[in-house]
Specification:
about 180 residues, mainly alpha, Four Helix Bundle (Hemerythrin (Met), subunit A)
Amino acid sequence: MDGISLMVEEHGNIKRMLAVMRKACLGILCGEDIDYNDFELMICFVRDYADNHHHGKEEKILFNRMVDEIGGAAEKLVRYGMLIEHDLGRLHMMSLKEALEKVKSGDEEAKIDVIAEAISYTHLLRRHIEKEDSVVYTFAQKQLSEKTLDTINGECSVFEQEEEKKGIQKKYLEILEQLEKKYNK
């Protein structure tokens, strides 16, 4: 298994969910009712697939190896770039969940916050994914030793197998397909 190629593939799935989120927000903007169940599924996908599953591999496997082996430049790129953006994405999801609760409680104005947080997340993640695919991963592939890349591949393989036993990939890709059928008409 090529761990970095897998992460790029996962980015494709995450971008598909970003497109769904934009369509759901467009619906709100056009006066449609918020489908709270759909937004809950979107938030679950982001938290469990994009963050725990995908960012889990980056944060626990790839980024640590980059900082340990490459040092300075990798540390700045990871600690002051990628990890901060991961945390900012988590903040957007927390704020989106809060905004949805406010709308449920009758605060119509909070619909603005639902749209703002969801769209801000999509913008952040699109730029973030582009940086990882075109800069971070390429940098890692060029600068890390073959031995380290092999270690990353092995650890990613074990991680994927453990997640597969729990049904993580299957569950969240099914959620993605379900939401795409509804929103990407």
